[in-house]
User: Which sequence fits this backbone?
């Protein structure tokens, strides 16, 4: 496949491309070697092969590549960014439209899409990940910042953020979900691995985890809480059942469930326990007061001075 | 990063920008100093850096910035308002599409969006906050008027409203909910601190 090489000679004084070759539909690779600054296009850029640049790339239209897109600086588009291969940037990746990649998406800065982000591989960002729509990744999603999505967040692997994870839709992970601050889901949260939050966990729907669920704050679910391990939080509230293969433990707060509570270990609450149905525990049910529900299995230990109803 | 300065010389008799520079995709900051009236654009306005104006801004299309958007008047867009930083307006903010901010959104007047309001930080307004979609704030929501949404309202901190709060979905506040009027939700109403209303509190599904 032929390669179009663009150099500083193909750029005007403002670093806009003014070369002789039409790059809106180039049947080959495009390689830009125009120094560390910007290479700007007043049109869309499309290559049947890869697009590679030593510096930053900007397009007033789309950036579209049949192969990978690689930049030693930023990648910035007023349209969409679409790649048949990986998208790799030493700076940020910013698009007014979708960001779509057949491979991974990797950025040392932020990743920002005015629409959705769809990646066949992992998504890794040195800054926040922001999407006006869904975020969908075939691999892990990692952000050294917040993950903020107007739609859902879906990952074939882990979802990890040093800040909060805030999703207007569901959060679904083939691995674990971990955040340095709160996790909010406008729908359900489903994780094949653990769920670990540095703040609260709020889910409008159910919370389903293959391993433990842990929160520095509280856990509040509009539906069932289902854990393959333990559930550990400041307090735990469920609009449905709470089911845990391990123990269920709340710090100083209550454990409250509209439905039943079923624990493969102890149930230990620093406050009261409240259930709209039965309580099943392999071990002890320790709380200040059992406010409602009936302990069907396990031994109830009330320590007294529970919160009044 | 270079800065495009738009002055009264770039504005026509109807208040529309007619300067020589294409602002639909400007690779720098845009600073507007065109007097106390409106600076109107017949197209979208996009800046890789910030957009700052001492007066009101109107765009028939989107208003997009890689950094903050700051207006000494109002901000009105026929499409999206999107900012990589804060959005700060002394007057009102109106958008024909969603409003996105990786930082905070502050308006001295109302905030209207014909879409979602999505903010990494807090949302504060001197007037009403209204969205046809959800309102999702990583920080607090503080309204000098009512708060109304077509879908859920989520606040990573408190919700304070001088008027009513009306949600087409659930209401979740990581702090208190304080309303000068009714608090209504099609879904649950959930809060971590207190709830205070001068009117009725109504949820189709309950609260906790």
Assistant:
């Amino acid at each position: 496949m032929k390669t179009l090489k663009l150099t500083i000679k193909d750029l005007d004084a403002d670093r806009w491309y003014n070369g002789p070759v039409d790059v809106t539909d180039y049947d080959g690779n495009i390689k830009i070697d125009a120094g560390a600054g910007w290479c700007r296009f007043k049109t869309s850029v499309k290559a049947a092969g890869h697009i590679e640049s030593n510096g930053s790339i900007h397009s007033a239209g789309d950036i579209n590549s049949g192969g990978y897109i690689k930049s030693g600086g930023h990648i910035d588009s007023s349209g969409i960014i679409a790649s048949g291969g990986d998208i790799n940037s030493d700076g940020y990746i910013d698009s007014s439209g979708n960001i779509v990649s057949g491979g991974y998406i990797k950025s040392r800065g932020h990743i920002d899409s005015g629409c959705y982000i769809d990646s066949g591989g992992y998504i890794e960002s040195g800054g926040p990940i922001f999407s006006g729509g869904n975020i969908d990744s075939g691999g892990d999603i990692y952000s050294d910042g917040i993950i903020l999505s107007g739609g859902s967040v879906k990952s074939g692997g882990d979802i990890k953020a040093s800040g909060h994870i805030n999703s207007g839709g569901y959060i679904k992970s083939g691995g674990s979900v971990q955040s340095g601050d709160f996790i909010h889901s406008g729908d359900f949260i489903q994780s094949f691995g653990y769920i670990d939050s540095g703040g609260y966990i709020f889910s409008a729907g159910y919370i389903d985890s293959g391993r433990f669920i842990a929160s520095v704050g509280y856990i509040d679910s509009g539906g069932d809480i289902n854990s393959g391990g333990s559930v550990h939080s400041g307090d735990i509230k469920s609009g449905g059942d709470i089911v845990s293969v391990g123990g269920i433990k709340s710090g100083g707060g209550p454990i409250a469930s509209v439905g039943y509570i079923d624990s493969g270990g102890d149930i230990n609450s620093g406050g009261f326990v409240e259930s709209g149905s039965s309580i099943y525990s392999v071990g002890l049910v320790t709380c200040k007061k059992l406010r409602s529900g009936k302990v069907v299995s396990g031994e109830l230990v009330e320590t007294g001075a529970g919160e009044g109803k | 990063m270079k800065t495009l300065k738009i002055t009264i010389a770039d504005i026509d008799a109807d208040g529309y920008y007619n300067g020589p520079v294409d602002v639909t995709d400007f690779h720098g900051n845009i600073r507007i100093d065109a007097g106390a009236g409106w600076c109107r654009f017949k197209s979208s306005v996009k800046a890789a850096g910030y957009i700052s104006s001492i007066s009101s801004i109107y765009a028939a299309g989107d208003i997009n910035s890689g950094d903050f958007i700051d207006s000494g008047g109002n901000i009105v867009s026929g499409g999206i308002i999107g900012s990589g930083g804060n959005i700060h307006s002394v007057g009102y903010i109106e958008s024909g599409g969603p409003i996105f901010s990786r930082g905070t959104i502050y308006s001295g007047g109302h905030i209207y969006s014909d879409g979602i309001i999505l903010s990494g930080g807090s949302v504060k307004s001197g007037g009403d906050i209204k969205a046809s979609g959800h309102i999702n704030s990583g920080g607090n929501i503080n309204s000098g008027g009512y708060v109304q949404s077509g879908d859920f309202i989520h606040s990573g901190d408190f919700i304070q409203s001088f008027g009513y709060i009306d949600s087409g979905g659930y209401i979740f506040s990581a702090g208190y909910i304080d309303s000068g009027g009714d608090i209504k939700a099609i879904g649950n109403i959930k809060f971590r601190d207190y709830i205070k209303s001068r009117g009725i509190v109504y949820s189709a599904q309950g609260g906790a």
Q: What stands out?
A: The longest strand of chain B covers residues 3-7. Chain B touches chain A at residues 24-25, 27, 46, 48, 62, 64, 66, 80, 82, 84, 98, 100, 102, 116, 118, 120, 134, 136, 138, 151-152, 154, 156, 169-170, 172, 174, 187-188, 190, 192, 208 (CB under 8 Å). Chain B has a mean pLDDT of 95.
